[in-house]
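User: Hi! I have a protein structure encoded as tokens and I'd like to know what sequence might fold into it. I'm fairly new to this, so please keep things simple.
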């Protein structure tokens, strides 16, 4: 049995150097350009939702303190 995935097609334009970088990144990841761009879009949307959630949290409970930010950086292994 063949299962077909429904898709939404886009036509995108970008500067040639960006297009080349996207093609290279997709190749390094072993992905199609479409798949790489779809993953990049998912990542961007997830980051925007996380940012909105953090903004709402801070609006309700106040700004994150240095200890909280340091703990988050340590957990994420950044900084």
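Assistant: Happy to help. Inverse folding works backwards from shape to sequence: for each of the 79 positions I chose a residue that suits the local structure. Here it is:
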């Amino acid at each position: 049995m063949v299962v077909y995935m429904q898709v939404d097609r886009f036509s995108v334009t970008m500067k040639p150097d960006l297009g080349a970088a996207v093609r290279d990144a997709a190749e390094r990841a072993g992905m199609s350009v479409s798949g790489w761009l779809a993953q990049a879009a998912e990542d961007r949307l997830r980051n925007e939702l996380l940012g909105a959630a953090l903004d709402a949290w801070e609006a309700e409970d106040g700004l994150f303190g240095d200890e909280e930010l340091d703990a988050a950086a340590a957990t994420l292994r950044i900084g």
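A useful reference point when you look it over: The chain is about 70% helix and 0% strand. Feel free to ask if any position seems puzzling.
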